[in-house]
Amino acid sequence: MVAEIVIGSLAALLLVATLLSFLRIPHGFVRSFSFPRLQILVVALVLLGAALWWVAPSLTRWLILAALLVAIVIQALCILPFTPLWKKQSKGRVVDEAEGRDGPDTVSVLSYNVKMSNRDYASALAIAREADADLMVFMETDQAWCDALEPLRQTHPHGLSAPYDNAYGMILFSRLELSDTSIQCLLMEDVPSFGATVRLRDGQRFRFHAVHPEPPVPTMDSLGRDAELLMLAEIVKTERLPSIVSGDLNDVAWSNTTRLFQRVSRLLDPRIGRGFYNTFDARFPFLRWPLDHLFHDARFAIVAIERKPAGGSDHFPMFFRLALTPSPEGADLPEAEDASDRAEKREIVADGRKLDREAIGVDWES
Known about the structure:
By secondary structure, this protein is α+β, with helices and mostly antiparallel strands. It has two domains: 2-82, no CATH class; 97-348, Deoxyribonuclease I, Chain A (4-Layer Sandwich), CATH 3.60.10.10. Helices cover 34% and strands 19% of the residues. The chain contains ten helices and eleven strands. The protein has helices spanning 2-20, 28-31, 37-54, 59-79, 97-102, 121-131, 143-148, 223-238, 256-265, 339-353; strands spanning 106-113, 135-139, 158-162, 170-174, 177-184, 193-199, 205-210, 243-248, 292-296, 300-307, 318-324. It has a six-stranded mixed beta sheet. Strands 5-6-7-8-9 form a five-stranded mixed beta sheet, with no helix packed on it. Helix 6 links the parallel strand 1 (106-113) and strand 2. The longest helix is centred in the N-terminal third of the chain and has 21 residues, at 59-79.
């Protein structure tokens, strides 16, 4: 009887959490249920075995099994595209090591949320130097972090810097020539995003955007994050050059907001068909999901994806190498936005512009 009550209660909670994740309510409490899909799936599978073993055949048992099976099927379908069982969205390209590192049409990107309170500067520098990416974006960088990372300027003389002590600071180091650079607060004051035109070694150019919006805190709305991502998607949609967007989006790859971002921007997610590449939380192996992303125009092909060591941060850095090809042939383009998407986008952005509060600060995770 006790086992039946415990397993039944947990099954009901998992089912409710699964269904809540699909509500289009822009609040951190609701949005947070989209994050642990893999964890809910694993727990549901364990409970399914426990119910079959511990709960005696009865109507209650069938209700428990039905609830668990519904949760398992829904969660599995949501994360299945981020496994090798699914068709790759981004086309791949195989190159030898020499061509891959310095090929005239290739670019490598390191996206690294260092965690502002982390002061292991030496590890971060070592990770950056080992990756030796053409573009290196560091997030949560205050002035102390910017000063500590300054040695990278010797090999990466171009860049942008916006140090803040609110965990939204960013700094970009680039080996490649940059032009048309900008530092903007798209929605909220003191939450910057970067934009730049990057010139490849063969003379081709593309637009690069780095972004780090608000996290979805369970006690507050998620409009700051949602609206900023969709505003950026609109910017990308109107650009004539192929684009790359990278950074800690504070959203999982399978969320409604991220998928809407893709439909608006028409950018591709290289994780689809390749793997989760969970980046947060580096401190807790079971509580990890993909928060640090790179989205790219269909003309880019993926040469390499690698998760780097955390170096004292709560995020794993992500390394990407891409090649800019003549056409999008071979890529699996996301669906284009429809009338419903446009209406949802307008509503989210309009509500985001009405926000009358400061950006969520560093105290939320203390």
